[in-house]
Amino acid sequence: MTRLSVNINKVATIRNARGGDNPNLVQVAKDCERFGAEGITIHPRPDERHIRYQDVYDLKKVVTTEFNIEGNPQDRFMDLVLEVVPEQATLVPDAEHAITSNAGWDTIVHKDFLTDVIKALKEKGIRSSIFVDPDPKMVEGAALIGADRVELYTEPYATNYHNDKEAAIKDYILAGEKAIELGLGLNAGHDLDLKNLRYFGEEIKGLDEVSIGHALICDALYYGLENTIQLYKRQLS
Ligand SMILES: CC(=O)[C@@H](O)[C@H](O)COP(=O)(O)O
Ligand SMILES: NCC(=O)COP(=O)(O)O
C-alpha cells in the first residue's frame, strides 16, 4: 500500500504571513497524523520562506509516523539533518531562489558528491531518497550512488495528465520499473492532486510513498484537513 506523506510547507507559509504562530505547525503535523497521514514531509529552504530551521527541531519531537526532510544537501541542510536524524532525507537539487523544486538530480554528473552525502546519511541510519526525473539512466545513477530510494519528480506528469494521461505516465512506468529492478525503494511527488493521483498509483507498481503538499493544503481549505487527507488516501487504496 502506497503511504501518503503530507508536506506541510504551505501551512508554514500561512503561519509566516502574519508573523505569529497561527496555524501552529506542530499541532497541524500532529493532527495530520491523527487524520491518517503516514508521514510528514517538510522542505526547509535556505531563505526559510515557509519551514524554518527551528520548525525541524520542534517537529522531530512530535512526528510519530515517518519524518521526511527534503532539501539541497548543502552544509547547513546536512548539519541539520544529521543532527535531527529523520526517518528519511530526500535530496533535491534546488537552486536557492527557485520558486519551487523544478528538476531532478543528474545522478551521473553529481555521482561523487551524492555518494559522500548518502554515506553520511547511512552512517546515521537515515534512509536516503534522491529526487530524479523519470529517466531510467538517472535511476541507475541513484543505485550506483547507494541511495535507498528515488523520488520521481511528477510535475511533468501532472502538467500533461489532462492532455494525454497515457503519454504522461509512460516515462514514469519505465523509471519505476528500473527502480524496482535495481532494488531501490520508489517514492514520487510534486503537483500530485485529487485528479491525477489515482491513475498514477494504479499505473506505477511498487510505489512506496507519495509526498503531497500544495494541492492537498489547497483542497483542505474547501473540504477540511481531516476529510482531505482521507480523500487523498482513498485515491491510493
Ligand atoms: C521536492 C518537491 O517537489 C516538493 O516537496 C517541493 O519541495 C515543494 O516545495 P515548495 O513547497 O517550496 O513549493
Ligand atoms: N516531494 C513532493 C512534496 O513533498 C510535495 O510537493 P507538492 O505536492 O507541494 O507539489
UniProtKB/TrEMBL annotation:
The protein's name: Pyridoxine 5'-phosphate synthase
* Lineage of the species this protein comes from: Bacteria, Pseudomonadati, Bacteroidota, Cytophagia, Cytophagales
List positions binding 1-deoxy-D-xylulose 5-phosphate: R45, H50, T100
List the pathway annotation: Cofactor biosynthesis; pyridoxine 5'-phosphate biosynthesis; pyridoxine 5'-phosphate from D-erythrose 4-phosphate: step 5/5
Please state which protein family the record places this protein in: Belongs to the PNP synthase family.
Q: Active-site residues?
A: H43, E70, H190
Catalysed reaction(s) here are: 3-amino-2-oxopropyl phosphate + 1-deoxy-D-xylulose 5-phosphate = pyridoxine 5'-phosphate + phosphate + 2 H2O + H(+)
Q: What class of enzyme is it?
A: transferase
Site annotation Transition state stabilizer: residues: E151
In UniProt terms, what function does this protein have? Catalyzes the complicated ring closure reaction between the two acyclic compounds 1-deoxy-D-xylulose-5-phosphate (DXP) and 3-amino-2-oxopropyl phosphate (1-amino-acetone-3-phosphate or AAP) to form pyridoxine 5'-phosphate (PNP) and inorganic phosphate.
List its EC numbers.
2.6.99.2
How this chain assembles, per its entry, is: Homooctamer; tetramer of dimers.
Concerning InterPro entries, the annotation shows: Aldolase_TIM, PyrdxlP_synth_PdxJ, Pyridoxine-5'_phos_synth
Q: Which domain of life is it from?
A: Bacteria
Q: What GO molecular function annotations does the UniProt record carry, in alphabetical order?
A: pyridoxine 5'-phosphate synthase activity
Which UniProt key words apply to this protein?
Cytoplasm, Pyridoxine biosynthesis, Transferase
> What is one term from the GO cellular component aspect held by the record?
cytosol
